Amino acid sequence: MSEFLQFLFSGLTVGAVYALVALGFTIIYNASGVVNFAQGEFVMLGGMITVFAHAAGLPLPLAALAAIAATAAVGVALNKLAIEPARGAPVVSLIIITIGASIFIRGAAQLIFDKQIHSFPAFSGDDPIHVLGATILTQSLWAIGGAFAVFVGLWLFFTRTILGRAVLATSNNRLAAQLVGINTDFVMTLSFALSAAIGAFAGVLITPITMTSYDVGLGLALKGFAGAMLGGMGNPKGAFAGGLLLGLFEAMTAGYLSSQYKEAAAFVVILAVLFFMPQGLFGSKSTDRV
Amino acid sequence: MIKTLTTTVPAALIALGLAAAAHADIKIGASISATGPAAFLGDPEAKTLEMLVKELNAKGGINGEKVELVLYDDGGDANKARTFATRLIEDDEVNAIIGGTTTGASMSILAVAEDAEIPFISLAGAIDIIQPVKPYTFKTPHTDRMACQKIFEDMKKQGIAKVGLISGTDGFGASMHAQCKDVVGEYGIEIVADETYDPKDADMTAQLTKIKNAAGIQAVLNPGFGQGPSIVTRNYKQLAIDLPLYQSHGVASDGFIELAGKDAAEGVRLPGTALLVADLLADGDAQKSVVAAYKAAYEAKYKMPVSTFGGYAHDGFALMVEAITKAGSSEPEAIRDALEGITGLAGTTGVYAMSAEDHLGLDLSAFRMLEIKDGGWTIVE
Amino acid sequence: MRLSSKHLTLIIMAALIVAAPFFFPSGYYFRVGALIFVNALAVTGIVILTGYAGQISLGHAGFAGIGGYACALAPVHWGLPPALAVVLGAAVSAALAYLVGRPILRLKGYYLGVASLGFGILVAMVLNNERELTKGPDGIEVADLGLRGLLKDWGLNLSNGEFWYAFTGLCLVIGAWIALNLFNSPSGRALRALHGSEIAAGTVGIDVARVKLQAFVISAVYASVAGSLTALQNKFVTPDIAGFMHSVEMVTMAVLGGVGSVPGAILGAGILTLLPQVLTVFAEYEQLILGLVMMLVMIFLREGLVPSILRKIRGRGE
Q1: Over the stretch C255-277, which tens digit does the pLDDT of each residue have?
Q2: What are the structural domains of chain B?
Q3: Closest partner CB to A6 (pick from B198, B209, B234)
Q4: B240 in reach of chain A (CB within 8 A)
Q5: How far does CA B217 lie from the centroid of its chain?
Q6: For residue range B164-220, what is the model confidence (pLDDT) as tens digits?
Q7: Among A168, B13, B282, C53, which residue's beta carbon has the most beta carbons within 10 A?
């Protein structure tokens, strides 16, 4: 029992990391249909800027806020300078642009910061919580709680606010959205700012667990993307559940089968889900436009 | 317009060529993973080489000749490393090569260097690089195999007979894992649990729980580098596993203690080099002055602690300088012969004694078994 | 008589490949040339998949990995000559592409991207983890192709660099020839129809699924052969060959040059292979510049370099 519980905690910790990254994908995807491959870089920036701002003397909460604000600004810049000028470009081009942006941000981070691995202290100390013979770090609870808060926030945003509905409307039909008076440029800018901020927030929460360096973005983005795909792209519920499921699946495979193939097993499951439920676990059916 | 171009471009090219020829008598090439997944290792290596060349030239070079360093960044990619090795030899016409941060890159470079008969000093760990001995290939880091032997020797002294392994799946972790499994039998030690983790994993408690529950287990060994071992060490404390934890030379740096946390790292043992414990070395120690000088210069210049990996580059460069000085020539053949004849050269990693049969020139004594106490290093022996 | 644009393309290509060595200042340039040719071959496969059939793959490096490791493993374990190992690798890649492609190609857009990405990562993982067979992340040595020795016996003594330059150049011309023929064949026209609209193509009687699958299998063979050539040339191969970044590199090269055009594939491969070699002086800035180039081309030359340039030239002529 304590063994199972430990695997469960391990999976929740890892899953919270994936879910936080996956949630960042949803807003931009909803507003523009673009999967932002630079999302992992936002997570990296959140962690790295906090580390360096903290080292420069800012108290940790202020450093984290500064990191989130700075990353949101990077998100806005990405939209204004790279996505907006490419409006109407095919999907492949948009994928390449965001991959290019991710390589660019990584290159800049390597110059501005350094190539070392960094971390900062956990928010509530390093002492684990004991439950029935298993343990979980308090920082994991912060990450799980953070992921849940972002999920609820996004859900409320999309269903209860005019702005959130404007984002969805823009994604459905840009012209129609403009006709009913939605400022679609503003909606896009806002989406990038929010996505980047969520990414940076994730970076702040997970750095005490995973540590950070200039090149952590790509690995995190791939896992987060896989989690989002598993749950259903663009759906906050799907991102949250998909990320957690992916983490749990890896931990259970590592615990009960072989740690060597935990990731392979995770990808096999994703492929299987996509074959049988192409829209992901929580996605909705879409129709094809001619 | 066209006329000015046709006259100025060749003039500029000639000027460049002359300028290069005027102050570069000995060319040493380097292909290092200053970026990419092995940047953590390669970055201090590149920095070290740049610093040492500058120092050397300020002191007048070798036998009155200046040294020019041609440094390329292969990103740890074997295919790129081969291209840069070809470029160094055929285009830059270097006298010798240092580099190959990762084993894959080193294997690629050595194939080109052997073909062209250019001496090459590798900075990667695997034993395959120098065994079987290849005429022009040398290396400075002790092999993974030696790290395993040093660790198992210490375990045997502690009366440990059953161990669990938790290894990173990166090149470093996988290679050391294989070597450890290969030599463990010689020490009468049995591996009772064998788990792996991905270098980017966030949590290893699942694997450690399995290891903890293995029957009769007495100690755990973690071959790996980067952030993985720090997370393993933290998770180890989280699970309150009450067994000795051994790390590898891959994390032999002050950064590891900082990342894993002072409390979690307490009592961790690992085989390290003299560089880590410069202040603790006995006054008569052959390595003391070399280690202290390198550490002081590097930390003053780059404002960051020295790492074992930068030390490998330091030793590679020192061997090269010694060989060229002794040979009195920068002909590749002469450098090779002189390299093979080097004995008693104290580096940061150990005291090198090369021979025709041994192109590494280090034995187990180069490693020192270290233990972390109160957030600092102590020498066990 | 007027040369068709297909023959003109091939003749210009061959002439450039033959003429270039007269301007090479050192043997290193043969190596760079061979790298460009191998990359261009793989990218030609992407052109067939993405340019002709409009499908995105982020996992083609997986097929390159299969081709590369076939050359490393088959000669050692089954005593196959390296040349046959290339064929074996291509056959395995084609079979896998067929099996994986059938369900994958039902997916659209990003879902196809992520499914192929998952496939590529799986291949890389197997290469990394099956240490007993592949020797793991550190890589494995590859047997000599033996052709160079054979040529030597026939009196043609080439250096290693010269041989690989010539051989990969020849492979590229053949690969381009096949792709251009495909472009003009009935199924090629069907493929291009797809790029416009699948549903429209379906209504005029094209078996959409079959044609997409064909393109996927053919492009997998291109990637596999390119992987084999890389491994044989280096006499060494590491799992990096199957890595995600290699897949991205292939797609970027294709899109940079112009995803619907074979000359574009070659130009894209040339530029992105040369870029890191030219940027060594700015090694620290290499990633920054690479990322910037990718974004700028996609924003300002959406169709890629070759189609954009051609349009400019034609526009001026009219």
Answers
A1: 888 887 888 889 999 998 998 88
A2: 2-143+291-364 (3.40.50.2300), 145-278+367-379 (3.40.50.2300)
A3: B209
A4: yes
A5: 31
A6: 999 998 888 888 999 999 999 999 999 999 999 988 888 899 999 999 989 899 999
A7: C53
- Of the candidates A6, A213, A216, the beta carbon closest to that of B205 is on A6
CA C297 to chain centre: 20
**B218 in helix, strand or coil?**
coil
Indicate the pTM of the whole model. Answer: 0.86
Contact A46, A287 (CB under 8 A): no
Using an 8 Å CB-CB cutoff, list chain C residues near A104.
287-288, 290-292, 294-295
Contacts of C265 in chain A (CB under 8 A): none
| B195, B238, B259 ranked by CB distance to A119: nearest | B259
Question: Hey, are the CB atoms on B40 and A116 less than 8 Å from each other?
Answer: yes
CB distance from B227 to chain A under 8 Å? yes
Q: Which residues pair with B351 in a beta bridge?
A: B346
The verdict on a CB contact (< 8 Å) between B174 and C32 is no
DSSP A7-58: HHHHHHHHHHHHHHHHHHHHHHHHHHS---TTHHHHHHHHHHHHHHHHHTT-
Give the ipTM.
0.87
Q: How many domains does chain C have?
A: 1
Residues C228, C231, C237, C239: is their CA dihedral positive or negative? Answer: negative
Higher per-residue pLDDT: B126 or C237: C237
* φ and ψ of C141, to 5 deg: -80, 150
CATH value at residue C254: 1.10.3470
| pLDDT score recorded for residue A77 | 95
pLDDT over 50 at C208, yes or no: yes
**What is the amino acid identity at position B273?**
T
Give me the pLDDT at residue B218, please. 95
pLDDT tens digits, one per residue of A68-105: 999 999 999 999 999 888 887 777 778 889 989 999 99
Most A CBs within 10 Å, among C295, C301, C302, to test the A interface? C295
Residue B29, SS3 per DSSP: strand
Are B86 and C27 inside 8 Å of each other by CB? Answer: yes
Does position C209 have pLDDT exceeding 90, yes or no? no
What is the b/e burial string over C130-164, where b = at least 16 CB atoms within 10 angstroms of the residue's CB? ebeebbbbbbbebbebeebeeeeeeeeebebbbbb
**Span B300-353, pLDDT tens digits:** 999 888 888 999 999 999 999 999 999 888 889 999 999 999 988 999 999 999
B263 lies within 8 A of chain A by CB? yes
User: Of residues A289 and B242, which shows the higher confidence score?
Assistant: B242
B→C interface, C-beta within 8 Å: 34-35, 71-73, 76-80, 82-83, 86-87, 89-91, 102-104, 107-108, 111, 115, 126, 128, 169-171, 174-175, 178
Question: Do you know the residue count of chain B?
Answer: 381
Over residues B355-365, the pLDDT tens digits come to 999 999 898 88
Please, are residues B80 and B100 in contact by the beta-carbon 8 Å criterion? Answer: no
